Amino acid sequence: MPRTFKGWYAVALAAVLQGVTAVHALETDVASRWNDGTTEGWSAVDNWLTPYPVANPGSYLGISFSDRSQGVPGIAFIQADANAAQGRFVGNYKAGNVTRISFLFYSPTHLPDLAQLVLHSPTSGRYWYYPLTGIQVGQWVRFDIPVSYEAGWTLETAPTPEAFSADIENVDWVGVRIFQGQTDAQSFGLDDFVLATPAYDADGDGMSDLAELRAGTDPYSALSVFRLTMSSTDEGIVIAWPS
User: Could you give the count of Cα atoms lying within 13 Å of 74 in the half-sphere of its Cβ?
Assistant: First the structure.
């Protein structure tokens, strides 16, 4: 299985990335939606560190694997570094109050063999992985991944809360690692990728996602929002809200 390349690949990619000086320009609560038809500087590499093509199939970021029926299924990292969206995803996640990483994942025809959200810190050279479970064929699936050790982030060896806390103070890229499912030709997509703070309002209805979750409304639908109205009647004040 392609997972046998994982340890070697992580070491080699770390060596490449540590030689690059990134401009830290962290910007939170701004989603990449690829509506301009470009890839916004996002890139990809395969398990041999070879640049892997990414595309914009129509207002989202896409990656495709060719038919590998005569070989090993493919692996690719789709990543945002200092070249992506003016370095929006690079910097100190702790100081920037990044509490979660939110995005949509699309698998039109096949389930990936494995998919993970990945953070890399050039300070330690460590890669942190978070498994993406619940992917469904034929529909966009929303992921809201807490940026906290307790949420289930792992290292290949000896993860600790202290190590995670230190590494999110200097992140030089974030991305998604995808292992091709079986060997057929297949594609995957990303959309609405954002480093979110507690103030983030995904649907723009004036109520933060955190407040909507507490109120029991849908933070991704502007039609679902908690609002009070007050009116005066002969009997007194009437307070009403949707339920």
Answer: 23
Contact 180, 65 (CB under 8 A): yes
The residue whose two tokens read 């979750």 is 213
Residue pointed to by tokens 């990414």 = 54
Residue 144 to residues 20, 103, 104, Cα–Cα distance (Å): 29, 7, 9
Q: Which residues contact 12 (CB under 8 A, 6 or more apart)?
A: 49
CA angle 178, 83, 31 (to 5 degrees): 70
Token digits for 217?
A: 């409304």
Can you give the pTM of this predicted structure?
A: 0.79
Phi, psi of 165 (to 5 degrees): -60, -40
Closest CA to 63 of 51, 50, 54: 54
181 C-beta neighbours (distance < 10 Å), count: 20
Q: Residue 15: helix, strand or coil by DSSP?
A: helix
Q: Which of these, 148, 170, 171, 144, lies nearest to 161 by C-alpha position?
A: 148
CA 44 – CA 29 distance, rounded (Å): 23
Q: What is the DSSP string of 125-153?
A: --EEEEE-----BTSEEEEEEESSGGGT-
pLDDT tens, 180-225?
Answer: 999 999 999 999 999 999 878 654 555 555 545 554 555 554 444 5
